[in-house]
Amino acid sequence: MTAAAADTVEPLGYAEYGQRVRAAIIDSLLISFAVGALVFGLSVFAARGGPFASFLSTLAYLIYLAGATLYYTVCYAEGGQTIGKVTTRTAVRLDGDEGRSLGYIRALIRAVVPPFFWVLIVPGLLDVLWPLWDRKHQTLHDKLVGSVVIQI
Q1: Which of 26, 55, 136, 146 is least surrounded by CB atoms within 10 angstroms?
Q2: Using one digit for the tens of pLDDT, what is the confidence trace for 79-130?
Q3: HSE, side-chain direction, 13 A CA sphere, residue 115
Q4: How many separate helices (H) and strands (E) can be counted in the chain?
Q5: List of residues 6+ apart from 78 with CB closer than 8 A
Q6: What is the pTM of this model?
Q7: How many angstroms separate the Cα of 67 from the Cα of each of 31, 34, 38?
Q8: Are 132 and 89 in contact (CB under 8 A)?
Q9: Contact status, residue 73 vs residue 113, Cβ threshold 8 Å
Q10: Rounded to a whole number, what is the distance in angstroms from the first to the last CA of the chain?
């Protein structure tokens, strides 16, 4: 589905928690497989020790984060759907204007904030649990950038 076609789809309501979780699992697996081979190779070299072990471990982690950030940012900005969201028939849109995608700035912020929340643990847990009691089923990072996840 092109970004223009995705932008014209009428929403069926806010995405349910289970749909969001399934989409997140699918996307996590895809990112892990796509970036995983390179990260695994670097990790194997790092595990052998030596003067570059710490550097290679850090590089592997940064490559994974960069790959995930790029994937989510482009998908959310260009049509509001990752492969996981396509599979679960959901999409990310601007709150109050469910026909519009986020654009690159909001999409980047939405992609970068959750990992920072997880560093602090409690905000990470609150972020993923918040949709359970929120009327629009929004996470904290949705609220931060003004987005909602809708059913299509």
Answers
A1: 55
A2: 999 999 999 999 999 988 767 889 999 999 999 999 888 889 898 899 999 9
A3: 13
A4: 7, 3
A5: 3, 101
A6: 0.81
A7: 7, 9, 11
A8: no
A9: no
A10: 12
